[in-house]
Here is the input.
Amino acid sequence: MEVEVSQLVFYLLSFVIIISAIYVVTLRNIFHSALFLILTLFAVAGIYIMLNAEFLAAVQVLIYVGAISILIIFAIMLTSQLANKQIRQSNEQVMIGIFICSGFLLASLGSIANTVWRIVEKPLPENNTLTMGKLLMNEFVLPFEIVSIVLLAALIGAVVLARKEGA
Amino acid sequence: MTDQNWSILIPEIFLFIWALFIFGLDLGIKRKNPKILGYSAMAGLTITGILLAIFNGGILFKGMFQSDQLAIFFKVIFIGSAFMAVGSSFDIASEKIRHHRGEYYGLILFSTVGMMFLSSASELITLYIGMELTTIPLYVLAAFYKDDKLSVEAGLKYLIVGAFSSAILLYGLSLLYGLTGTTDIVTMKINLSLVFLSYGKIGPGLILAMIMVIAGIGFKLALVPFHMWAPDVYQGAPTPITAFLSVGSKAAGVVAFARIFVNGLIAFASDVMKPLDWGIIVAILAAAAMILGNITALRQRNIKRMLAYSSIAQIGYVMVGMVAASELGIASVGYYMFIYLFANMGAFTIATIFNDKTGSDGIISYSGLSKTSPIFAAYMSIFLLSLAGIPPLGGFAAKYLVFAAGIQAGYTWLVIVALLTSVVSLYYYANIIKTMYFSAEEPTIKIHPSFPANLVLLISVIGIILFGIFPGPILDWALESAKIFAF
Here is the structure.
């Protein structure tokens, strides 16, 4: 019985993700698109919870829903006239795009279904946030540290590009 | 944690701190003296090279960071290309980018640090993050002429294409992780063979993963059909950055490719493993790159666009050595990149100086350069002839080795394509030489490079001629570096 419920929740979340993602790329009002993007990201966080990745879900909500979406909305509101403008999100290549994307979708579905995947038989660690923190600070400390250089580089780059010349 | 030899991280850490020092120095001198910044960037890169010679060999973090011969070989190429890019930037630094000189040099160093981490990564996450650290500064650097529409367009295009290709690459890497349960490349190799031995098959998921990784790295390499961004970005970006993109960033892609495919997926490089054979996919892409790059380059009137298409073709030749997936193959790739460093950086340095003097990138405006600046016309001829692969210059030995590796591995058709397209390439390289030497127009332009640019040109010319006549030392080193892969 429990399995069925979780399956139901999974399908529900996937439905929400797909529908709202379609709205994000088709709606003519970019502000509405941004709101649907938030809904998509929320539903993805739900999927993470179902996969026992609570920490990822929390990070997803904090960073994507909390920070990035707010930034996007700010950018829309601060750009004059953009919030009420009706824009077309597609161009004349939309049919080719749909064709290629569905072809790619079918190809990847087919190959994923026919592949031997590596299944981990061990039960998941009791407290996977703790495990992840330990991994980040031990085994994966090098990429973790390099990420901070990446962020610094992005920060400096953004300042350079946004700064007025001669100011 | 006991036998960890932390000192092998010193070159990377030093270069990172030096980049921060340059940001600070720019503030300290109140943006007054542009030359100090450039010279200190060059000094920093030189010291990093020396540190690399002292602190190397060994692994860190359970093999996550490997300072092996392959990594060191390519790190020398990265440091060299950054050194030359900085050296050829002195002229634009005094005028066009005067508000952000420190950031300009610092970001070049950041990107170099990223390449160095990337070449040492034997694990997918570090490799990916190294690649991001390589490209994020380059997005900014490509758009560094903020008043120039072409440059801003170049930066934006590069950012969008780069983000897109990163997403594809990540998807491919995550599929590889799903197939093997590890991000460590060597363990990945073992796990894949275990699955193959026990089930007798892996399935098309591996093909999907390989195609995505090839596409993701192919974007960085500007390999056909993922090359569309390259001509526009190369044309719009500041010329030293174009040079850095075409050598440093490509060499980084080459290392990533070698680590993932030639090391991790080596078992899938042969006909026996059909259809799980990446060799044939890459061979077809390489052939397409050589044909399309060389033929499109014929029609270019702008030297930066021409060099962009030529570099698309050049990466096709590099991939001939890569698909050979043998010791000679990897050694020839290394040697090729080493010579390519000198030839391409040299050619772009001349283009930078010329553009700075005349504001033009048109090939036609090089008319009669041999009469006003005979030395630089001669330099340019050497660079172009080396790119075309004329003996006794370095480019010839490089092409010879790559072709030999290709034939040894049984890719005779690919080598024939490579030979034929080389002949085509000679036409457009020689066309510039013809314009410089045999144009009827009266020459008007005389170029005076700054001292560092002169130094860069001199190093490049000496490198091409010396290593063309005596390929021995570099080739031995490249063979040594290829030994780290168990063939």
Summary: Chain B touches chain A through 48 residues (CB under 8 Å). The first strand of chain B starts at residue 59 and ends at 60.
